[in-house]
């Protein structure tokens, strides 16, 4: 379902655009010539600005209409309006702190979040203007952030579509026992035990949570792309010394 574009994988049609950026052909030295999209890592702000403009031109969505929160691996969800346009895009601010999911009913706004292993969850309606995005690492997934975001949609649940995007795949995501303790429901299909090691499938857990909420299999798409692939950033595999991708979703104004 996701197409492969020059600097991202995603969907880009006349109205809806969504995607997840690659690490290639940028201006950053984190690592060299990468498309780092985060202001909070060890990178020059002018590099990030240039990288943003590369994407803005490719998706035909000006950066002045982007919104990026300060994420904290929680489950706080916020409705975004045009008043937030430009927040945390060119410079970081104290606005939108501790927000790990956003939604809007307005066109002309691009909702963006930074990732480097965690699951980006994109939600949109096929009958109205609702769009949403969530940042679902293991902590947000444990807090069922996908269900909290879904609750904000007041229309017919059958009109929703979910895409679980580029995420570190299970075979590359080893976690400690404190992550997989008995305080949350991990489907058998989402965990693999190898001796004292645990391998977790964030994509599968979020898919199951969407099904539990009431969506059908046909409404959910899980991409095969993973951050262990060389064209993406991986915080885990690069031991934190890397940039961040931008997951994004927006509807163009007509």
TrEMBL record:
Species of provenance: Phocicoccus pinnipedialis
A Gene Ontology molecular function term of the record: hydrolase activity
Pfam families from the UniProt entry: Cu-oxidase_4
UniProt record similarity statement: Belongs to the purine nucleoside phosphorylase YfiH/LACC1 family.
Protein's UniProt name: Laccase domain protein
Keyword Hydrolase: yes
Coiled-coil annotated spans: none
Function of the molecule: Purine nucleoside enzyme that catalyzes the phosphorolysis of adenosine and inosine nucleosides, yielding D-ribose 1-phosphate and the respective free bases, adenine and hypoxanthine. Also catalyzes the phosphorolysis of S-methyl-5'-thioadenosine into adenine and S-methyl-5-thio-alpha-D-ribose 1-phosphate. Also has adenosine deaminase activity.
Keywords: Hydrolase, Metal-binding, Transferase, Zinc
Reactions accelerated catalytically: adenosine + phosphate = alpha-D-ribose 1-phosphate + adenine; inosine + phosphate = alpha-D-ribose 1-phosphate + hypoxanthine; adenosine + H2O + H(+) = inosine + NH4(+); S-methyl-5'-thioadenosine + phosphate = 5-(methylsulfanyl)-alpha-D-ribose 1-phosphate + adenine
Cofactor section: Zn(2+)
């Amino acid at each position: 379902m996701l197409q492969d574009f020059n600097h991202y994988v995603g969907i880009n049609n006349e109205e809806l655009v969504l995607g997840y950026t690659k690490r290639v052909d940028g201006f950053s030295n984190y690592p060299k010539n990468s498309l780092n999209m985060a202001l909070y890592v060890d990178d020059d702000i002018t590099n990030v600005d240039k990288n943003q403009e590369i994407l803005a031109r490719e998706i035909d969505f000006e950066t002045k209409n982007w919104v990026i929160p300060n994420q904290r691996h929680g489950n706080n969800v916020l409705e975004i309006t045009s008043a937030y346009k430009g927040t945390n895009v060119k410079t970081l601010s104290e606005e939108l702190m501790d927000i790990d999911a956003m939604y809007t009913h307005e066109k002309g706004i691009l909702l963006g979040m930074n990732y480097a292993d965690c699951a980006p969850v994109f939600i949109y309606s096929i009958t109205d203007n609702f769009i949403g995005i969530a940042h679902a690492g293991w902590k947000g997934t444990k807090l069922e952030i996908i269900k909290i975001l879904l609750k904000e949609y007041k229309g017919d649940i059958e009109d929703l579509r979910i895409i679980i995007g580029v995420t570190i795949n299970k075979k590359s995501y080893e976690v400690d026992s404190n992550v997989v303790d008995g305080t949350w429901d991990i489907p058998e299909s989402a965990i693999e035990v190898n001796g004292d090691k645990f391998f977790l499938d964030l994509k599968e857990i979020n898919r199951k949570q969407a099904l539990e909420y009431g969506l059908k299999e046909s409404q959910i798409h899980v991409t095969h792309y993973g951050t262990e692939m060389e064209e993406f950033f991986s915080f885990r595999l690069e031991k934190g010394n890397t940039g961040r991708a931008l997951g994004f979703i927006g509807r163009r104004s007509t």
